[in-house]
Write a structure and sequence with these properties.
This protein is an alpha/beta fold. The protein has 11 helices and 23 strands. 22% of the residues lie in helices and 26% in strands. The strands form 6 sheets. A 9-stranded mixed β-sheet has the order 11-12-13-17-14-20-21-22-23, with helices on both faces. The longest helix has 15 residues.
């Protein structure tokens, strides 16, 4: 058994854009009128602007442009400094506030941040601060995913006998978010009927189904030519039969040793979230391109998923929150964890099984699109999916896993797991030249960027495990060795006594 988390670090590094640093020196002429309108009195000769991947910071004067992932230092060289800083979110995000932190300017404010040095003249103590290069103050925006929980309602309740217990099934619909073609986003909460409402850890499951998009002719392109299967509402029967039971029972209707089975047996509460925009659970409320059958549609997967998590935590007593995604849901688990983290809410952990958005998938796609045994047809265009889903799979945005980790993201421990024979990374096909050059198979090549990014971070909480001889979504299969890797990861996280992610 080969666990890639234990493999040595290879010498070749992935194509990751690092965090950039800029320095500005701002001097205002004496003729400029400077009014003391600062939200906070400026008392330092340096302002350090730290921009997250979700947006940028500019000034109304145009003198400063601090792009996403940059750290920009503004040198304040005289007492005539006056700038208004504006937070600019990426498409699909909103500006929430300026971050509250020690020595942070405008913390908690939701408007542009005005900073001026007027009034310092003649004040020796303050001018000494301006002249001290060790005095540094900070400005950092917080960007958020806009979502709604007010349109969520309980639509159906059932009792299910199984797993040696009786289980309550609560089916919810969120009418704030329509599906690509029909219906609304939905989710299912599963908990023991013997002790309903008891405080429990929450396991958030995001299922697979690939992705798809409408091309310019109105035709639908998807993996395995799967038509529009994931653009309609998932009913309670769908979530129960196709997800809960299918992921915990084998063909003989006997319990299988899957990740979901183990969580149910351990007493977790399950939250199973639908996907009905075919968007990898990552849509941000942007228009659904070329959807002539539903021209007003938006792509809302991440908004609906975050809303489902927030609603469940608010209405069911919860300790820890762990996200688990398989295939399409693997991308969604990463999106969910990083989107909450951007707002200062840190999930306990995330398990991403089998598919990752990474630059290393592109040469795989180029080599095998339309080839028998590879799920993407020759007519599928990766850019079509990017145009639809946007930020979280647009590699230029530096939001994919190894880029995040290289930027220092360690707020949510993540396990990236898969099988080295997975067809989605062409593990069943001959190695491409890029993989051969690194003496790797195709799937090891795809995951190796992640492995290197994790290994390069001291004391990283993240793990990468590519299981030898396994195919797609091994956490859904009856495979005790895969489940042991998941269990060991979860146990290691819980041993750190992480706080409640949504505690006040």
């Amino acid at each position: 058994m080969d666990y890639s988390m234990r493999d040595p670090l290879l010498s070749k590094r992935p194509p990751i854009i690092p965090i950039f640093k800029k320095r500005y020196s701002i001097m205002k002429p004496l003729t400029r009128a400077c009014l003391f309108t600062a939200v906070a009195a400026l008392s330092a000769c340096k302002i350090e602007i730290e921009t997250p991947v979700e947006g940028s910071v500019t000034t109304l004067s145009g003198a400063i442009d601090c792009a996403a992932t940059e750290v920009c230092t503004v040198d304040v060289v005289d007492i005539f400094f006056a700038e208004t800083f504006v937070a600019e979110p990426e498409q699909g995000f909103i500006f929430k506030s300026w971050k509250q932190k020690e020595r942070g300017f405008c913390g908690g404010a939701t408007t542009p941040c005005q900073l001026v040095t007027a009034g310092f003249a003649g004040n020796e103590a303050l001018t000494n601060l301006l002249n001290n290069p060790d005095e540094i103050f900070y400005l950092e925006p917080v960007f958020a995913v806009d979502r709604r929980t007010d349109a969520i309602s309980l639509n159906e309740e059932r009792t299910l006998n199984g797993f040696g217990n009786s289980w309550e099934l609560d089916f919810y619909r969120n009418t704030a978010y329509g599906c690509g073609l029909s219906g609304n986003y939905s989710f299912l909460v599963v908990e023991p009927a013997s002790n309903p409402g008891a405080e429990k850890p929450l396991w958030v499951y995001l299922h697979g189904g690939g992705t798809g998009y409408f091309d310019e002719s109105g035709g639908y392109q998807s993996i395995n030519n799967n038509a529009n299967a994931w653009n309609h509402e998932e009913t309670m029967d769908d979530l129960v039969d196709n997800q809960l039971l299918a992921k915990t029972l084998n063909q003989n209707m006997q319990l299988k040793d899957s990740t979901l089975t183990r969580r149910v047996q351990e007493g977790y509460r399950l939250l199973i979230v639908s996907m009905c925009d075919h968007d990898l659970y990552s849509g941000l409320g942007t228009p659904y391109p070329n959807n002539t059958d539903n021209p007003a549609a938006e792509v809302n997967g991440l908004q609906a998923t975050m809303a489902a998590v927030e609603y469940t935590v608010a209405n069911y007593a919860t300790t820890h929150v762990i996200a688990h995604g398989t295939s399409a849901g693997s991308v969604g688990a990463h999106s969910l964890a990083t989107a909450f983290a951007a707002e200062g809410t840190f999930l306990t952990a995330a398990v991403a099984d089998s598919y990752i958005a990474t630059p290393r998938i592109e040469p795989i796609f180029e080599a095998f699109s339309g080839v028998d045994g590879y799920p993407f047809s020759a007519t599928f265009d990766l850019q079509g999916a990017v145009d639809k889903i946007g930020f979280y799979i647009d590699l230029e945005k530096q939001a994919y896993p190894e880029a995040r980790i290289a930027q220092g993201f360690d707020d949510v421990p993540m396990l990236f797991i898969g099988g080295d024979l997975d067809q989605f990374c062409a593990g069943n096909l001959p190695a491409i030249p890029e993989a051969v050059a690194e003496d790797l198979g195709n799937c090891n090549y795809v995951f190796d960027g992640l492995r290197q990014a994790v290994a390069a971070q001291p004391d990283s909480p993240h793990q990468v495990a590519l299981i030898e001889g396994r195919g797609h979504t091994p956490t859904n299969n009856s495979d005790s060795e895969t489940q042991d890797v998941v269990d060991d990861f979860i146990q290691a996280v819980l041993e750190t006594s992480p706080p409640h992610p949504f505690a006040d």
